[in-house]
Design a protein that fits this description.
By secondary structure, the chain is an alpha+beta fold. The longest helix has 16 residues. The chain contains three helices and six strands. It has a six-stranded antiparallel beta sheet. Helix content is 20%, strand content 39%.
Length: 131
């Protein structure tokens, strides 16, 4: 029941914040160097050949979700042959439990992420333990 309550609160918070890493104080300099454009709606465009496929949520995971309980699970991969893009969708989890509505998709070409988009729940919800 406590885990369900935490996830519900997280979803509510996510709905009001979208993705909160657009603030430059949160992005570390390494990640900033790879991003060519950021939209507060959750879209990132990356400089050419700077982020290899699937590295956003390994190398840069602490930038997105610093909590050790947060993780990403690859849920779907597909190729759009018309535009020659490969796509990978990730589900955010917290202590192994999927966070409803928290997904992020990489859009890749030639082994590198060109852009990515999605919604995450970046709040550290450990403070909700008292509930």
């Amino acid at each position: 029941m406590k885990k369900l309550l935490k996830l519900i609160v997280c979803i509510v918070l996510m709905g009001t914040t979208n993705i909160s890493i657009g603030q430059s104080s949160v992005l570390d300099s390494l990640f900033q160097a790879t991003v060519s454009e950021f939209k507060t709606s959750g879209w990132f465009w990356f400089n050419n050949n700077t982020v290899p496929v699937s590295q956003i949520f390994t190398t840069y995971k602490p930038v997105f979700l610093p909590d050790t309980g947060d993780d990403f699970l690859l849920t779907k991969q597909w190729t759009d042959n018309q535009i020659q893009f490969q796509h990978a969708r990730y589900q955010q989890t917290y202590n192994g439990i999927p966070v409803e509505g928290a997904e992020f998709t990489e859009h890749c070409r030639n082994g590198f992420v060109v852009y990515a988009n999605g919604k995450l729940c970046p709040h550290n919800i450990n403070h909700l333990q008292r509930w």
